[in-house]
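The protein record passed on below.

***
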Amino acid sequence: MSRASISVVLVRPLAMALASRPAALADLLAKSDLTPEMLADAEGRVSPAQFCVAWAEAIRASGDASLAIRIAESTPAGSFGVVEYVCRSAPTLRVALEQWCRYLGILDDAVDVGLVDEGETTALRVLRESEAPAPASHELCFALVVARAREAASGVRPIEVRYAHRANDANATRQRAFFGAPVRFGTRETELVFERAALEAPLASADAGLNDVLRSAADEKRAKRSPHAPLTDQVRRALASALQSDDGQLELVAKRLGMTGRSLQRRLKDEGTSFQAERESMRRELADRYLGEGLSFSEISFLLGFSEPSAFFRAFKRWTGITPFERRASLASAIRTS
């Protein structure tokens, strides 16, 4: 099963575009199997299929084939967190785009992009397309890159924009007006093409010290990609806090995510797991962490939502085949010999 996913940060602009039309927004969320609670989770992610449906519904509901351009023109600076800031603080436009390619997976690991030098030109090219393409998302990406480049490297503009997907005449006209360059649809590659020399333009927002700090933070975030499918990951994070207040029950966790228990179970089944399996997995994971941190067995039992320490002992032995005493001793031994 594919584990590719997209941050809800990239879905929020679509929700904002429909914010003045509650019924349309509710329809988008329902059709893409999302809830307002999911969108509010800064660490939340969606599947490529959900992202594709969300874009299609946003364009349909807005009636604007050029919705990506409208969003790019209204999106405030800083909306894309550390990935945006690490690019803004880069010394040149080339380095900014290189860092965009390196860290895009933090926002969207369903696609790969790269810089491709060909003679006197350099293209920001989609190297691997999503399993469920959302063509307008590429339009938004390119429009945001150009908009930010105009701000930070005055005078820089693309020499051509190429999209593998098709577009209607109205969208094509709006695209050309925005980019101030030829825009072609139905091409072999999806890419934003610059004069190679233009990418050496220094950025007005360059800050070497800040860039070092941000790259370190981005590298750490990039390395922490979850092995779990999007909803499973959200459930696990909800459980991590819910267990501590004895709220780690199906209906209560589902409510945190704006869903019913039945719907949550159905969606988890689609991702190849169940609520009970993830609850047990999180308990086991947290138990190991708490044992390593030296918490008492009573404290661990309470934090994991067990009625008493003996219930925790039985569960731990079932999970691991050893007792919490034995596990704590092995952890202590490993520390002494390291």
Summary: The chain has two domains: 66-223, 230-337. Strands lie at 6-7, 45-46, 112-118, 121-128, 160-163, 183-185, 191-195. Residues 33 and 50 are 7 Å apart (CA to CA). The first strand starts at residue 6 and ends at 7.
